[in-house]
Amino acid sequence: MLTEELLRDSKKYIMNTYNRFPIVIIKGRGALVYDTDGKEYLDFVSGIAVCNLGHCHPKVTVAFQKQAQRLIHISNLYHNEPQIKLAKLLVENSFADKVFFCNSGAEANEAAIKLVRKYAKEKLNGSRYEIITMEKSFHGRTMATITATGQEKVQKGFEPLLPGFKYASFNNIDAVKKAINKKTAAVMLEPIQGEGGVNIPDNDYLKKLRRLCNDEGILLVFDEVQTGMGRTGKLFAYEHYGIEPDIMTLAKGLGNGVAIGAILAKDNVAEAFAPGSHASTFGGNPLACSAAKAALETIIEDGILFENCIRMGDYLTKGLKELKKGSSFIKDLRGKGLLIGMELNIDGKDIVMECIKEGLLISCTMDRILRFLPPLIITKEEIDSMLEILYNVFKRIR
Ligand SMILES: *Cc1c(COP(=O)(O)O)cnc(C)c1O
Questions:
Q1: Which DSSP string corresponds to 297-360?
Q2: If DSSP codes are grouped into helix, strand and coil, which group holds residue 81?
Q3: 106 ligand 1 Cβ < 6 A
Q4: Per DSSP, which regions of 195-338 are E strands?
Q5: How many degrees, rounded to 5, is the angle at CA 130 between CA 95 and CA 178?
Q6: Of 321, 298, 301, 319, which is closest to residue 375 (Cα–Cα)?
Q7: Is residue 121 predicted with pLDDT exceeding 90?
Q8: I need a surface site. Which of 104, 124, 219, 398 has the fewest CB within 10 A?
Q9: How far is the CA of 146 from the centre of ligand 1 (A)?
Q10: How many angstroms is it from 48 CA to the middle of ligand 1?
């Protein structure tokens, strides 16, 4: 009754921008969530790579509660302690020297695009402004970030797009070489494409890209909104590839569910921003920063979290491989850590719905790629339960 009423009101009062599944989630703990009918679900979506420490992680929740009683918001006209401490922690654990805080992934990428342009104006003799991004990339839903996103379906209906973007195919160094010209200021990409279907680059691709950017004197920007915060088995995905970007954007997992985004940069790049260059009312507010600080401290201090991520990633992949053997409609399986994609040669939406009925949340991207994004604290037993559900759903389809 309550559920039906909520679903009716949702349709009546909320803009129709999502194809939502017909359940209303009211609480969560670890890798489990519960709906209005009291039904339990194993969550292999984690709010799309957001709740990397699981739902309502006690350290994050307590930090959030304490800060909510102390100070929720104060303008960036003044300093605030959680913002400073979070920035320090991010810098100490990354390639970067400076941080700017905002509220989402799109905003972080928007800021990165602005920083590239400002840097290019000041340090690349003023004639460079173009940014090369990748086909099948995803960078957000603002005007600049849908332009950066190399997917027509995201851009359609919103033209004219922002000038100054060019696209190259992912994992193809020659395509980037071809796209570079005298106007190029930066190459911007996800080290591993998430929404584009969990596309993993060859081992040497990012290294080649780094060298190319150095040779051309242009910036390398990594969008780690999805791959960051431990998701791939390291704090940031770039650490797998033995190179560093000039700018990196973060959001999703940064606050473990509390809205926060950030751009990180080396000093020589960050210098291009001066007072007045960029700002955000809510960016870096004490509440969000306290939650993110607690999340980041937990990830860093945990000790076995990355190990668990890699071990469970392998275990899950092995289980999925077994499923692949017996199914004609599974085309490919790929992933890093607990960012795992299973490409089908049929539509994935019905499978996702069947899984929901069986008490399992998984997601589907690019129509045919099932994506598995459990929290990094996931256990063997939970993976076994999930594989059993998936096995039964697949059996019905096969
Ligand atoms: C989700 C995502 C974004 C957009 O983040 P929002 O917080 O939804 O604006 C940008 N880049 C990547 C790689 C993402 O996965």
A1: HHHHHHSSHHHHHHHHHHHHHHHHHHHHHT-TTEEEEEEETTEEEEEESS-SHHHHHHHHHTTE
A2: helix
A3: yes
A4: 219-223, 247-250, 261-265, 330-336
A5: 95
A6: 298
A7: yes
A8: 398
A9: 11
A10: 9
For the chain, the average pLDDT equals 97
- Distance, in Å, from the CA atom of 167 to the CA atom of 133, rounded to the nearest integer, reads 5
Task: Tell me the CA–centroid distance for residue 1 and ligand 1, in Å.
Answer: 35
Predicted TM-score of the model (pTM): 0.98
Q: What is the pLDDT of residue 385?
A: 98
For residue 397, pLDDT over 90 is answered with: no
pLDDT tens-digit readout, 320-370: 999 988 889 999 999 999 999 999 999 999 999 999 999 999 999 999 999
* CB distance 373 to ligand 1 below 6 Å: no
Whether residue 367 contacts residue 344, with contact meaning beta carbons closer than 8 Å, is answered with no
The region that residue 244 occupies, defined by phi over 0 for left and psi between -120 and 50 for alpha, beta otherwise, is: beta
Interval between CA 140 and ligand 1 midpoint (Å): 5
Scan for tokens 């009101």, then name that residue: 9
Which residues lie below 8 Å from residue 238, measured CB to CB, with a gap of 6+? 95, 191, 206, 222, 224, 244, 245, 248
- How do 130-134 and 165-168 pair as beta strands? parallel
Q: Which of 256, 224, 220 is nearest to 239 (CA)?
A: 224
**223 Cα nearest atom in ligand 1:** 13
How far apart, in whole angstroms, are the C-alpha atoms of residue 227 and residue 200?
11
Give the separation between CA 21 and CA 9, rounded to whole angstroms.
Answer: 15
Does the pLDDT of residue 273 top 80, yes or no? Answer: yes
Q: Which atom of ligand 1 is nearest to the CA of 227?
A: 13
Query: pLDDT at position 398, please?
Result: 67
Whether ligand 1 lies within 6 angstroms of the CB of 194 is answered as yes
Residue in 113, 138, 147, 151 to alter for ligand 1 test, most ligand atoms within 8 A of Cβ: 138
For residue 162, pLDDT beyond 80: yes
Rounded to the nearest angstrom, the distance between the alpha carbon of 190 and the centre of ligand 1 is 10
Between the CA of 326 and the centroid of ligand 1 the distance, in Å, is 34
Identify which of 291, 295, 292, 259 has the alpha carbon closest to the alpha carbon of residue 65.
Answer: 291
Cis status of the peptide bond prior to 82, with omega within 30 of 0: no
Identify the band that residue 126 occupies on the pLDDT scale cut at 50, 70 and 90. confident
